[in-house]
Specification:
By secondary structure, this protein is an alpha+beta fold. Helix content is 26%, strand content 25%. It has helices at 5-17, 71-87, 92-107, 122-126, 139-149, 178-188, 232-239, 266-277, 350-359; strands spanning 31-39, 45-51, 111-113, 119-121, 153-162, 203-207, 211-216, 247-248, 257-263, 282-290, 297-301, 304-306, 314-316, 325-332, 336-343, 378-386, 393-397.
Length: 402
């Protein structure tokens, strides 16, 4: 990405100052920082600094702009709200609903200003969906909000990663994330936001009295999330109101397309899910990766865990991560190589992180671990398991749309 030289210099100076900040250089302790060069009403040039999320467990730090939210309003809802959510540990459905209500209440404490001296509620910028966790807390929105609230004119902005991470490089510049920051920055900069087309419905590949196998399109959630966007599970429930089981047996990332298995009865669901737990289900994915892997085939064994400061991003953590194993084989080589993957474990974003770190060639279109594009070029193309009624092996395939 192209970064303004003055902003880049200010960001690099900040990185040098933070070089002695030990927590940032602990395992996966790194964080995004931002600098904004702005002009005052008197014509003087100043430099503002911000960090994404919290720094050392605090929203404020000397020399950095404050968060966007109303502190008093947030304290009124967050402290009792978190206690209420914790009290519902034994009631998962009620706990999930309370957690979603708490997130909505927290997001209502954010008022986003823009260059036209207008203010809009954070949730309104993401409507009809809900904002993802962490929206409004990244460095770029913090910097612009401070500038607009103090009659400063933004000149140049840069965001730099500082510290140690398995997924990002110390001292590298990164663009603002599209998912959390896109609608916010578009409003702050007074840009038009292109409407996101609704994802297509799943396509039924196979169906009998016990099973439904569907092909999920990219952009469609597997199960309902906080955003309220449509999901495969809701689509299945509408089509099969008499199903006695939980339906979906496994999940795919929203950005991944391909085969999903659902069971119509509790017994069928339990039978197939036991196969997933025993790792006897055979799954194969295909992807286009950005570059050429050095070898023709191999096995990636990198433990993974979620990054709590940047959900849903996963990071490699050899100490606290859960073991994740992926077999891979190059199918065709080019500037964008075609690679087949067979995951032997089922961690969140496993293939995406393993491709970026283990192969050194991220999947094309990966907005989290590579370069954003029209879509993530990852497709679940094959699955095989024992049928819950006949107990005979069955297999299904789906051609990748890329």
């Amino acid at each position: 990405m192209i970064v303004d030289p003055a902003a880049a210099g200010a960001a690099e100076a900040l990185r040098r100052e933070l070089a002695g900040h030990a927590p940032l250089y602990a395992e996966n302790g790194g964080k995004m920082f931002g600098v904004l060069i702005a002009r005052t009403s008197q014509g003087a040039t100043i430099t503002l600094r911000a960090f994404s999320g919290m720094l050392d467990g605090a929203w404020d730090a000397p020399g950095f702009v404050p968060p966007i939210f109303d502190r008093a309003a947030r304290d009124r809802v967050e402290i009792p709200g978190e206690a209420h959510v914790k009290s519902l540990l034994a009631h998962p459905v009620a706990r999930r609903e309370a957690s979603q209500a708490l997130m909505r209440a927290i997001h209502d404490t954010y008022a986003i200003p823009n260059a036209r001296h207008e203010t809009r509620p954070l949730r309104a910028l993401f409507a009809p969906s809900e904002p993802p966790a962490g929206a409004g807390d990244c460095a770029a929105p913090k910097l612009l909000a401070y500038a607009f609230r103090h009659a400063l004119t933004p000149i140049a902005l840069a965001e730099i990663f500082v510290g140690k991470s398995a997924a990002r490089t110390d001292g590298a510049f990164y663009p603002a994330c599209a998912q959390k920051c896109g609608p916010i920055l578009a409003f702050m900069r007074d840009e038009a936001v292109a409407p996101v087309p609704a994802p297509a419905d799943p396509r039924v590949v196979y169906e009998d009295p016990w099973l439904v196998v569907v092909e999920k399109p990219t952009g469609l959630l597997s199960v309902p999330g906080r955003s309220g966007d449509p999901s495969v599970l809701e689509w299945l429930r509408a089509r099969h109101p008499g199903a006695s089981g939980p339906l979906l047996v496994h999940r795919l990332d929203m950005d991944t397309s391909g085969l999903l298995v659902a069971a119509k009865t509790k017994d069928a669901h339990a039978f197939v899910q036991r196969q997933f737990a025993a790792r006897t289900v055979e799954k194969r994915y295909v992807a286009l990766v950005d570059g050429e892997p050095r070898d023709d085939a191999g096995v990636i064994d990198l433990p993974l865990r979620v990054d709590p400061d940047d959900r849903p991003r996963q990071v490699h953590d050899p100490i606290f991560g859960k073991r994740a194993i992926t077999e891979w084989r190059v199918l065709a080589r080019n500037a964008r190589s075609r690679v087949a993957f067979v995951p032997r474990t089922g961690r969140t974003h496993q293939i995406r992180v393993h491709t970026a770190l283990g192969l050194g060639a991220p999947i094309v279109g990966d907005r989290l671990y590579g370069t954003p594009g029209p879509r993530l070029m990852l497709h679940a193309e094959a699955i095989a398991f024992a049928h819950p009624e006949t107990q005979r092996a069955i297999a299904f395939t789906s051609e990748a749309p890329f």
